[in-house]
Amino acid sequence: MALIPGTLPTGTKYPTDPQSLLDTFASYMTAPEVKKNYPTVTIAPVASGGTVTFNSGGQDETIFIDIASAITGLTIVFPTDANSVVGQTLRVFPSNTVNATVSYTNGTREPTGPTSLTADTVYAWQKVKSDWWIRVG
């Protein structure tokens, strides 16, 4: 894992002698960088009254609601404040219409959103501060 400027790897015990400490840092500096927030896509073939849940690892995610015909009722579960990060973006894309009630829950502050979803339309939210999601699409 490469060091990202301004961060140090957690849980690392650093050696006490200067040369070993330099060798440890050099190994992090030459390792390939790992993107922490690699976006994910989840395909969710839900039925009427079903539930889709976003990941709890802090990654950006798109949930593709893969349905052949319109359904009624859907619950979209957002990650809790502890399992999400500021700047994280979450998206939902239904292949068909979701009628009736669409509810959004995350255990604390509920994000704003439409009460029905139109087919082939992207709906997106971004976390802007603790327990605060805004609709961005």
Structural class: mainly beta
β-strand amount? 25-35%
Main pleated-sheet profile: 5 strands, mixed
Order of helices and strands: HEEEEEEEE
Mean pLDDT: 79
Quote the distance from N terminus to C terminus: 34 Å
The number of helices is 1
Helix amount, in percent?
under 10%
Inertia-based shape = elongated
Strand order of the largest sheet: 1-3-5-7-8
Supply the number of structural domains. 2
Number of strands: 8
Radius of gyration: 20 Å
Uncertain residue ranges: none
Written description of the protein model:
This protein is mainly β. The protein folds into 2 domains: 1-34, no CATH class; 40-135. It has 1 helix and 8 strands. The protein has one helix at residues 18-30; strands spanning 40-44, 50-53, 61-65, 71-77, 89-94, 98-105, 123-129, 132-135. Helix content is 9%, strand content 34%. The strands form 2 sheets. The protein has a 5-stranded mixed beta sheet with strand order 1-3-5-7-8, with no helix packed on it.
Keywords summarizing the entry:
3-stranded parallel β-sheet; 5-stranded mixed β-sheet; 8 strands
How would you summarize the topology of this molecule?
Blueprint: H1 18-30, E1 40-44, E2 50-53, E3 61-65, E4 71-77, E5 89-94, E6 98-105, E7 123-129, E8 132-135
Parallel strand pairs: 1-3, 2-4, 3-5, 4-6
Antiparallel strand pairs: 5-7, 7-8
